[in-house]
Amino acid sequence: MIEKDVTVRNRAGLHTRPAASLVKLAAKFKSDFLISKDGFEINGKSIIGVMTLAAEQGSVLRLRFTGEDEVAAAAAILELFDRAFDEPT
Amino acid sequence: MTATQHITEELVLKGIPASPGIAIGPVLLFEKHKPVVNEKDIKAEDVDGEIERLRQAIDRSTKELSKIHGFAKQKLGEHQAKIFEAQLMILEDFVLFESIDKRIRAEKKNVEFIVHDEIEKYHRVMVLSTDEYTRDRALDVEDLRNRIIRNLQEEKLISRLEGSPVIVSQSLAAADALILSRNAVLGYLTEIGGVTSHMALLTRALKIPAVVGVRNVSAMVRNGDIIIIDGYGGSVVLAPKEETIRRFQEKRDRYLNFEEKLHGLRDLPAETPDGRRVELSANVELPEELEFVKLQGADGIGLYRSEVLLLGGEVFPGEDEQYERYRFLADTMYPKRVIIRTFDIGGDKMMAEMAREKNPFLGWRGIRVMLDRPELFLEQLRAILRASARKNVGVMFPMISSIKEVRRAKQLLEDAKAQLKARTIAYDDNIRVGVMVEVPAAAVIAEDLAREVSFLSIGTNDLIQYLLAVDRGNDIVSPLYQEFHPAVVRFLRRIIERGKENKVWVGMCGEMAGDPLATILLLGLGLDEFSVVPHVLPEIKKIIRSVKYRDAKKIAKQVLEMQTEDEIKKHLSSLMKEKLPDVLTGD
Fold first, then answer.
1. Residue B322: count of CB within 10 angstroms of its CB
2. Most buried of the four, B224, B332, B550, B582, by CB within 10 Å?
């Protein structure tokens, strides 16, 4: 299992479009992908789940990857957060 | 939510009469857009069936939303369309639907219950969020959940009512009223909404009494309370005394008697004693009405509101489906004429999701929508043309405000003809084409319009709203909506005269055509066709058959000189009392 903390960097936060990119990317990997914020945990492959996070700019999220391709999954998703979903920061 | 108490002592409230008739019966409170979900156990062998039902409901919801999304994107822009995008993405959320499937298998509960419960988990979190954006998304999630459940329950909704209730609701969408009306509903009472809302039109078409605009009423009654609604005058009586009930029963019987007497007129023409013959036809929305329309002795159908085909779903019916409906109308009425109005969507006549414009009545509606979506328009025009093969169909364009629109619509009609010709499908090459005159601009250029088409049909509901700048659905200003405002009367004269000078016939399909108080005036102004709700047809015919055209013209001339609505109404009322004492002209 890989566990990483990330900060939401884009100005608009994890709204619909970035949430969709995140979910789509996560679906490409076999590993389970969970996101928790303030003790509330959801499945990172579920758009409705990600929407409930209400992750604004500056929120800190804990990401957990478990499965055979967890290394690749973590790298890809961290990179997406790092690029701030290609949105203004 | 409100401090209003349950009323247990007789109380009379005043609303707006929206559909005539008197209903006396038990209240059934109806909550809009909140499907009732019951928890039910299912058998192990039914699990696969339940999951299949869910799959179909998701498919149907996806179809509906994709159409709305496409529409919204093109017209309201990417930003507004996002609302639907989020909902569409949730429909593809396999994590969510996998857990729903799993729960159905494990818990053996009905799919509605599990869908509701599972989505509620997320919904609850979002509603409580401190983030405004997320709280807004909670509304989307709720919408979507209701959409899926509605698609799951479509057939079940219908059997939900028991007995014969009076439906009391904050507001009712036309689709709700339609679905509820398949039950033995005695009447409708709503807190908001005006007489021209689609729901009001629909209740009139279905001949179910309705009163609208009675604020807070749903907080004053409980299910099962006896209530009286008077759709003639607009009164509502809560907790009526025995003697009040008796009084209203008598009133109801008196009206019904009078209506029965009128049936003798069925086979007689709408002709004045001095030989002026007008066409008296019916406004129709539903195929179920046609038998009644024929019984009432209509000369034809002056307005078929094709947009009812869109009720209950946002998916546009295709050419073949439309053709079936139009052909049924044309065949049932043959050889009488049927005028089909092309989709008049927008305003209050489209699904709520569409109406994200700030001012929909001044926005994208009627012909404007159809000219922007030529492929949908062509589809409809082809369907209408195919139904015209026996030459008893006319086509009419709504919301025309310029010659350019008429020419463009006519061009598309020619294109549709060419497409059918290429497919060697029969149609009426001389199909009559008309326009609605309902935008003041169209009234001003009536002579130009008349040179482009073969008939004009005045839509008074919108024309009056636009001319007087009054939204009749807004109960704060609705008293300012005046059919007999001198400006309205003079405007009508102008349209009728300009039309006749240019040799086209001029009809009226707005509500005013069916108002008995207006009949003599309209006759005197020279109107050629009255298209009315089926239930008033015999009454209007009786008036026409009782007044000489010569006298009606004199009366119209007098009215044209009057300066206030009060004066005009008083004059017409006293005339009616004198000439036709048993005709009911409102209060």
1. 23
2. B332
